[in-house]
Write a structure and sequence with these properties.
546 residues; alpha/beta; 15 helices; 20 strands; 34% helix; 17% strand; globular
């Protein structure tokens, strides 16, 4: 349908995604203006609720802003933007305090700062991770979601998926490009609607589902990154996909994460014969940054031809494990693994997207009116590798600054927007095509663009991705859209961005390791891709450094 917004009733802010980033923005906006939040699946099915470890807070007397910035830079392997890291570290205590005031039940310690128990994870010099046992993300998400549900100025729409950003191009206007709203699919009704917006905030998470093995939920299909890219925004550092070292290896649980905090408390990585192996890879042993630990596990698995390694926490004792890691203890026990008495089989899995839509510290993208927050973005915080528990912190800090900027910007013109045109399409006749292409894409990304890469593998991946894109674009042009098709379209866009970025980086750094370029250059820069029109042809990616 065509949508018109009267001047007396400005369009709401539309937030795509109901995780920590999206809910933070919504709660800070809703005291002043109406908000619509779209959740592609159920409200509890995003990545935030899966986060186990915690959120960084520079709170202790033994800690400092400088220490946190230094640890972030060390993990980021020379590509962290210091200004961004410092800004977020300076606001970390305030972020944790806001969550405490919101009612998040963090694990207590009467002797700790703010009365909180702080834990330590890989790459951190001191204990600075506020947590709620081993299910921090769920504790935070439950509290904020409850607040959002009760707020009269926030409208929650479950099972609504954004298709594309509506820009000046859709209005056929000769003007500086601007975002006016989005097209969104009501999945239950299988109907595409036009949603005008004062501003659009992309908070859709990462792109883990582009890989066959991932710790991410099914929602992580890179929707926000792909939408922003198609709308003309720059995308940065997509070659840096973090593989979490320890995902449970079990036929019934392919996405269950074994939190890094378990290694922070002393759990040890071992080979099947019980031999510890991290000493051969890094002096920090199990507390080395995630990229190093993941590559070490990958190396040992390939060297020995084994399917997994073991994470041994038995020496920590049953009482300690039940108290500090109740979720992991209970889940593993249901699968027949008593972690107090036997080691946990683990493998690396795609976990976090360190790149994304290029934004500033207010969430502003290149397209006025379009914002992005959280794992969808590239802000410079994570560099070539994310420091553990910085992700939830980024969501809260920049969710707040994003909301502030939207309020200061105010409501602009909301013109009449064109309806979604389905006049030339029909119902899909071969859903198996989507399922096949989905499987093929995820398998080739796992085999060719995984933890260890080569130029030949990347070139093969890019060639096949282009063929898949042709098939998907043809399908998209001729059939009515559904969630599976839209997710596949977004995944193939993101896959191409990852491969193009990886081909441009002719060195090994952080999460990107190439056998053809095994050394780290003395000076390096972020990888930034932009779209440019030439001779009226389809936009292509051009890389920038610096």
């Amino acid at each position: 349908m065509t949508s018109t917004a009267a001047a007396a009733h400005p369009a709401p802010v539309v937030i795509v995604g109901a995780g920590l980033a999206g809910l933070t923005v919504a709660l800070h906006l809703a005291e002043h203006i109406p908000v619509v939040v779209l959740a592609k699946r159920g409200l509890e099915e995003g990545a935030t609720a899966w986060a186990q470890g915690g959120i960084v807070g520079v709170l202790g007397s033994d800690d400092s802003i400088e220490s946190h910035v230094r640890d972030t830079q060390d993990a980021g392997a020379g590509l962290v933007d210091e200004h961004t890291a410092r800004f977020i570290a300076e606001h970390s205590a305030g972020a944790v305090e806001w969550l405490v005031q919101s009612g998040v039940p963090f694990s207590p310690d009467p002797a700790g700062p703010l009365g909180l128990h702080l834990t330590r994870e890989g790459g951190h010099a001191v204990r600075r991770i506020a947590h709620a046992a081993d299910a921090t993300g769920k504790a935070i998400h439950d509290v904020l979601l409850d607040r959002v549900k009760q707020h009269p100025n926030i409208q929650l729409r479950e099972r609504w998926m954004a298709l594309d950003v509506i820009t000046s191009r859709h209005l056929k206007r000769e003007e500086t490009p601007h975002c006016y709203g989005i097209y969104a699919l009501d999945i239950a009704q299988q109907r595409v609607e036009t949603l005008p917006a004062t501003a659009v905030v992309l908070a859709t998470g990462g792109v883990g589902k582009v890989y066959r093995y991932t710790s991410n939920p099914d929602t992580a299909t890179g929707d926000g990154i792909a939408m922003a890219w198609r709308a003309g925004c720059r995308v940065g550092n997509m070659e840096f996909i973090q593989f979490h070292p320890t995902c449970l290896y079990h036929p019934q649980e392919r996405s269950f994460l074994i939190t890094e905090a378990l290694r922070g408390e002393g759990a040890q990585l071992k080979l099947p014969d019980g031999t510890r192996f991290m000493a051969a890879h890094d002096e920090r042993l199990e507390l080395a940054p995630r990229d190093i630990v993941a590559r070490a596990i990958d190396f040992e698995m390939k060297r020995l031809g084994i399917d997994n390694v073991l994470l041994d926490a038995t020496h920590l004792g049953e009482t300690f494990l039940k108290e500090h890691f109740p979720t992991i203890h209970a889940r593993c026990l249901r699968l027949g693994i008593d972690i107090a008495r036997q080691p946990i089989p683990v493998v690396p899995a795609a976990h976090y997207t360190c790149g994304g839509v290029v934004t500033d510290l207010h969430g502003r993208s290149d397209l006025p009116g379009l914002y992005a927050v959280g794992e969808t973005t590239y802000t410079g915080l994570h560099g070539a590798n994310r420091l553990a528990s910085n992700s939830l912190l980024e969501c809260v800090v920049l969710g707040q600054t994003c909301a502030t900027d939207i309020l200061q910007r105010g409501a602009g013109e909301t013109p009449e927007l064109p309806a979604w045109d389905e006049s030339q399409v029909e119902n899909a006749d071969e859903q198996v095509v989507i399922a096949h292409n989905w499987d093929e894409l995820r398998l080739l990304m796992w085999n060719y663009v995984g933890i260890v890469r080569t130029t030949k593998r990347l070139e093969r991946a890019l060639h096949r991705i282009r063929l898949l894109r042709t098939e998907i674009d043809d399908y998209y042009a001729n059939f009515r859209v559904n969630r599976d098709l839209l997710e596949l379209r977004n995944l193939v866009d993101c896959a191409e961005l990852i491969v193009r970025s990886a081909l441009m980086r002719q060195e090994s750094r952080g999460l990107h390791f190439s056998r053809d370029f095994p050394y780290t250059l003395p000076v390096s820069f972020p990888t930034v891709l932009l779209r440019a029109h030439r001779n009226g042809k389809k936009p292509e990616a051009y890389g920038l450094s610096g």
